[in-house]
Records
---
Amino acid sequence: MSTNPNPILTNEAAPDLSLSLSLPFRSSSAMALKVLYALDAAKIQYYHFKAIIIAGMGLFTDAYDLFCIPPVMKLLGRVYYEDKPVPEKYHIPRVVLATMLGTALLGTVIGQLVFGRLGDRMGRRHVYGISLILMVFSSIGCGFSFCRTKTCVLVSLGIFRFFLGLGIGGDYPLSATIMSEFANKKTRGAFVAALFSMQGLGILASSMVTMVVSKIFEAAASKNLSGNHTPEDADIVWRLILILGAVPAGLTYYWRMMMPETARYIMCVCVYLINYNNSIKIS
């Protein structure tokens, strides 16, 4: 009685090539499932809280950059719309105001689609760094908006706000994905909730920074202030508020580059490469 060398085949069955070809793919999938199970069952460790802080700082910066613009527009109205008649004095037209507020949101939508896709193809760590660099330089660009004339400032600010929105849009899906891939199965929901709670702190920080910077300027220029005239130095206030948004983004970039790529993404890439190599050998 002959023995069958292939354990999948029975003594009487004809060779099934599709089953034998699927063995390498089954082994790699089984290895991936073991790794994913170990990650899901891992105990809470220090790196979990480190990931919350680092990824959360990205959402903190997003909220700061998005919600600091309404008071900044009030300051722009005070600086650049002082020469208007009394009804429109210090008030930015609604069309201009809506455009300035909407450019960053438009960039956010596009950034989510573009950077989210790139994160799946190039890795979370690398693409997350690109989005943070874009946020840093865009925040600085918003503060150093070209010229001192009204039209030139608003156009350049709108352009830089759009690119800032691209970076913010890339940060949203990548921060959530990084946190969910670092977390285990039991605490994933709580960790992601803690991550997005950093947005509230970012909104609070944007209001506090605006009030503190404005108060410092008011105290420094109290002798030159009047109810009917805005000093030229007031143009520095809104620029400083926008530039300060680059500080948490830059710190987040440094901390994120110190962290490794998520294990779940590495596992998915390894499985893909194993299956790809096996398919080449089989063909």
---
Amino acid sequence: MVAGRAGIAADEREALYARSAVFRICYNTDISHIVSKTMSTAQSIVVSMRLPAESGRRLKRMASRHGWTASDASARLVEEGLRRAEFAFIDFRDSAAGRQAYVQGSTLAVWEVALLLRTYKGDGAAVARHLGWPEAKVRAADHYAEAFSAEIAEALSDNDAVDLKALKRMLPQAREFVAKRPKSLRRP
């Protein structure tokens, strides 16, 4: 038995990996440990990194605030950074529903733009006019929604599950109203 970097014998580590593909070695600022992967069921790889002490403390505070491990928080932040780099106009923010992809410079989550696109039958130009945005922002949200369709479908499903009756239980002052379609969007 040869001791591995994580303080676990190499054959024990291999046995863990053999039992489950969702284990990975994670490093925090103090110790190395093995944790189960909670972000997704995809296989993961080991990436070791050093953080300045203050960054490590900030990471731990963020993880604690969300109920994550420091390892999960760092994996999420790396994933979000990669998505930001790959998709124009996309940012990530905390919301009541957890961290979500948003369109930069707006208060709309990507799934909300996807909902508008569904309402306008995929007409990105009409959604852009509706929002007063450049069409490129709507297309960016649509491209993100296509790439991460399961994530967006889940948010849309959660939204669809809330009807007026459920909303009134949460917000007793809620009332139903029907908005009139602006003349510019009416069909001739």
---
Amino acid sequence: MAIIHEGLSEEFKYVTKETEQEHIGSMFSSSDLLMQEIAFNLIKGKNIEVYDLVKKALDEGYEANTVLDDGLIAGMAIVGVKFRDNFIFVPEVLISARAMKAGMEHIDPILSASGAEPVGTVIMGTVKGDLHDIGKNLCIMMLRGGGFTVHDLGVDTKPDEFIDAVLEHEATVVGMSALLTTTMPNMGVTIEAFEDAGLREEVKIMVGGAPVTKNFADEMGADGYGSNAVECVQIAKEILAVKG
């Protein structure tokens, strides 16, 4: 099933990269009008509507994971693309995040009660010297929705703080974000710190942020690079060889 919701169809026009059109389009391929209505209202930041629609879907017998994947996460994927490409800015992202949180009020208790094992444990943080966190927080939201346990170290995160968190939580993935060209090198410094600590082989490291490129990530020795919040989940699963 293609996108049949008129408003959502207009929002999808903001997704212009062919690979993203395929990936995000596939997220809506099996969704019906109700799921697409949830996604559309999330994009528009209508938290009350999202709260009510998610409850309606669950009451009608939709699986919690279906509502999460086809409604909330799919909608947030478009928000991530619009934010990256400067069609929307921090206030709009925060409003959409509030709407997703409203929907998760119904989803979280169901998922917790199911006792499902997490896909993996991820440590996330913005690198030392950088105080930007909106993109990182989008990734965290998507990773949690994708089944990962995520520990957020916040901003201005020193290399030893990443290392301590990996040891404390027995994490298998580290995600680093930077929004400034002046702080990007601290990603490499952190990777070197893991090498010096003898932990580099124990953890997979993925990086992202507006100025970060795949070439830069490769030069630093990162295991994965994502240009948006959707790719963050995809890359985490790929580097852990997780199916789905």
---
Amino acid sequence: MFISGMMAKNLVTIHQDARISEARALMQDNHIRHLPVVDDAGGLVGILTDRDMRDAMPSMLLEKKSYIDTLTMVLKHRVSEIMSKNPQTIPVYYTIEDTLVVIQKKKVGALPVVDDTGKLIGILSTRDLLGSLINVMGIGDPGTLLCILAEDKQGQMKKIIDIITEEKISFGSVLVARSWVKGKKAFFPYLLTNNVMNVKKKLLEKGYELIDPLQWYMKQTTQEEGR
């Protein structure tokens, strides 16, 4: 799925020379955490995040008068002074998968989307991405997520799907990931039922290993950090 269908297109932006007070009001009024910053030509020059804003605010430990005086002074400064410069952007032809990789590597909460000319045409937040993933994976509906460890060889997914469909169970989605166990992969079918006792029994009888998805994630994370 391409991000063009999930990004926010009705952009709220602010000029780099605007006051911090204006940016603060825009973010509060529009309930946004990431505000693209533009120049006179409308080109993207930065992004103002809720973290940037918090870092610029005076300490709550100040006495009331000192706090108010400092806040008044801070709000008069320019957005360009506290924005995150040279923000990471993504092209409009990126997919969900491409975007997930960028977010994981860059540790950002939102990505401005640009066209072939570099013009800002949208913004995609982790919240937008999460909503799209929930829709794509079908996990918005009640169901059960299984984690099945199987040998990494051709035809395994078909065998697993056949076992599950024999029980007249519908799928929300199926994901496949590499496992810390050499020669194996982890299969994650999201089943649109909570009655999975019989299918679990059949999978075990066929020699598949079932583990708790959270345990798999914790184990996988430990193995990745150890590399």
